[in-house]
Amino acid sequence: MVTALDKNTALVIIDLQKGIIQFPLAKPVTEIITNVCKLIDAFRKAQLPIVIVNVNSAAAKWNTARKDSNPVRNVQFTPDWTEIIPEIKSEPGDIFITKHTWGAFFETDLDAELRKRDITGIVLTGIATSIGVEGTARHASERGYNITFAKDAMTDMFADAHEHSLKFIFPRIGEVDDTDKIIEKLA
Question: Domain boundaries in the chain?
């Protein structure tokens, strides 16, 4: 349950991009997109920053160095694979981050962009709960950010992985709640 949000909180949207939403997902992607868009509207109304993250792991060191069978190698990276889905309407001033690993803080400018805006808290959303969202959350926790997870604005390729993150990992490093409850705290 979300008890409070820092007055300087940013919304962080993980990997809502054309290539990722094509994967089979545990929850309908339309529900996730609807809730993320509600959060975007609320954060814009509150004049708080929005971070839009995509992943481009095609040339990532961990991906090219693996010797075992790697399911990522079988993914067809189409030219629009990394493009953010059109439902996520960006505006000037939004922060755009391209990550190459699971976490959005590793070897990116995300921490610097948040710090220069005096951001102390983040609300996390996106795909996949146990990969991009959890990887980003772990790094955010290590950097001292207060973390809130919008549980109905994220999903995973596997229902068990999604539930594991929500039940066992996220409560140890932040607060977990529904989109509507988080929006209430913004007011």
Answer: 9-63+78-186
CATH code, 9-63+78-186: 3.40.50.850
E strands within 71-128? 95-99, 121-127
Angle at 20 between CA 16 and CA 23, to 5 degrees: 130
- pTM of the predicted protein model: 0.93
d(CA 136, CA 132): 6
Q: Which two tokens stand for residue 87?
A: 């439902």
Residue-wise pLDDT for 9-32, tens only, equals 999 999 999 999 999 999 999 999
Burial class (CB in 10 A: 0-12, 13-18, 19+), 80: exposed
Buried b (16+ CB within 10 A) or exposed e, 14-29: bbbbbbbbeeebbbeb
* DSSP one-letter code for 77: -
Q: What is the pLDDT of residues 115-140, one digit of tens each?
A: 999 999 999 999 999 999 999 999 99
